[in-house]
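Changelog-adjacent note: as of this version, every example in the card shows the full chain rather than a window. The one below runs 277 residues end to end.
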Amino acid sequence: MVRIEVSEKSDAAMVLVLKGVPLEFANAIRRAALEEVPTLAVDYVVFYDNTSALSDEIIAHRVAMVPLKSDLALDRYRQPEECRTSSPPEGCYTSLYLEAETGPQEERVIYSRDLKPQEDPEVVPVYGDIPLIKLGPQQRVILEAWVRPGRGKEHIKWSPTTVSVLTHIPEVKVDAERCNLCRLCVERCPTKAISVADGRLVIDTTRCNLCRQCVSACEPEAIELSWRKDEYRLLIESSGSLKPERIFLEAVLQIKKKLAEFQRQFEEVFSVVGGES
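Full-length structure tokens:
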């Protein structure tokens, strides 16, 4: 039976324990969270003026890598596939505007909060304190950044996650009769997952990375290390564009869509083959 439990959760990250889930499906969710969940990001930048020390290309790259809020705004925009094929691309684009200049004796750092929405007030940078440009005296930059939906497999700027990691859940058994509390395993453990309390070894399996240093350090072979079958820990850390729980749900939905499309094409192919025979 499939079970999903939330082990840890914050605004930025979430750890899920997947039970009764095959490794292939669990890894598909991990990859979909990185590559398939659509978000909003800057697609291209139009410069009207730039007298700063940075070239247009460098500024455009820095602006494009700023994560944008996509939780509510994404529901209003078309899917990336539709935006690439539709003409005109209605419902695909919105824009941010930046205009800044300095006086004769002034220096100024331009931050991501200086990117102002023109059409959709909900499409704004997630973090306002990302430095973009430093202007010297009497310098100016004016640009318009066009935003559209995309996926991480197209470019990392559209990925909603900074980390998406799937790990085994360790199974650690300590033979109390063989363990002489020599503490070598405590010293060798790189993640500090092993400690001694009340005269016995205490294992924190959430910190164990299955490196087996404890097993090799234990001369009496008192420690047995393995992992649970069809049980995994999935860490999803958000860039801020989408909440981690929505990233997980959207990843599952993207997999369902792909499976439905695969089934449709499979039935179509075999209906043609059956008709010909």
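Structural remarks: The chain has six helices and twelve strands.
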